Amino acid sequence: MAATDIARQAGEGCRTVPLAGHVGFDSLPDQLVNQSISQGFCFNILCVGETGLGKSTLMDTLFNTKFEGEPATHTQPGVQLQSNTYDLQESNVGLKLTIVSTVGFGDQINKEDSYKPIVEFIDAQFEAYLQEELKIRRLLHNYHDSRIHACLYFIAPTGHSLKSLDLVTMKKLDSKVNIIPIIAKSDAISKSELTKFKIKITSELVSNGVQIYQFPTDDELVAEINGTMNAHLPFAVIGSTEELKIGNKMVKARQYPWGTVQVENEAHCDFVKLREMLIRVNMEDLREQTHSRHYELYRRCKLEEMGFKDTDPDSKPFSLQETYEAKRNEFLGELQKKEEEMRQMFVQRVKEKEAELKEAEKELHEKFDRLKKLHQDEKKKLEDKKKSLDDEVSAFKQRKTAAELLQSQGSQAGGSQTLKRDKEKKKQDALSRLTWYFKWKCLVLT
After folding, report:
1. What is the pTM of this model?
2. Where is the sequence biased in composition, kind Basic and acidic residues (predicted)?
3. What is residue 8's predicted lDDT score, i.e. its pLDDT?
4. Residue 156 and residue 107: Cα distance in Å, rounded?
């Protein structure tokens, strides 16, 4: 019977069997759609370009709304990334849109490191997602994915060639994000100049090895339109939220003294092509490329830095448990080695400190002995001076006694009253001088 025929897949033990009736798993696509609609979608756009190229205006035009934001100035000291998240609703589909702008990009005199804040921001979003993946209790279904899905790189409409800043920045970003180059304010140059400018940009990107995002052509449903749109890159766009009446309908346009440029007129610019490719056809592919290509590259490099590998040196499968144990043992060995080094260093420093303290103690003892000897010498000198002064005081007292004796004898012999007063005065003066001399000597000795 045909129902018993079994088809086997080559190299696999999988059998294909027919069904006798309806089972119901053909509703899985509908279930997936319903689940996706209930959860909503997220899409993150990075706008890179110099100040004044109309990045905010183009975002307002793309999503047909007015996002909040203030115009950036040309006075920023460095490049700053400003992120804003909005909840959008169209029919029954919700979209959490995040727009990241590079404020101050290209405004500095030294533009050598202008790309670094952008690369660091993209890596930071990858790192945040990786850390969430590595948690024991993961909540990825509720996690707000902030990884950049598309990078719109705004090129100034010079009509000549790409600036070195543009080439360097796109080269640094092409392995981390899906780059879609666009020529901003394309109405500033003529149509012939614009065609030559596109060819020049494409040639410079190829010659410098810059990999921009190519719309996928492996899906038959979109292969033709995507292949056609790849030939139109980079898109020359114009943005405007102002509506003007042209004919019998209101359209988004820019009014000039010489005429009107319609944003959604494909003969005037590539805005419609950009909107179709970015939002209506390839938004999910941009999300998928971000996860399967750019994030996987970051994740693989990060895990390899941490020591995790798929195979051992013999090309045999290497389990996560074995890798963890090996890294743990390696870490413990390094920790013990560092502990031993620190212990040896501590012992060495203690010995050096003890030697320094002993040397300082020896110097203090020597200084104390010198001061003690000096003190004894000074004390001996003072004692000698005191003895000399005592001898002088004794001699003074003897002379005083002799003077008093002579005075009493002179008064008995008689004499005039005037002579007596003179002698008395001289005696008092001599006594006063001796007294002051004695006080001065005592003061010197003390």
Report:
1. 0.70
2. 419-429
3. 40
4. 13
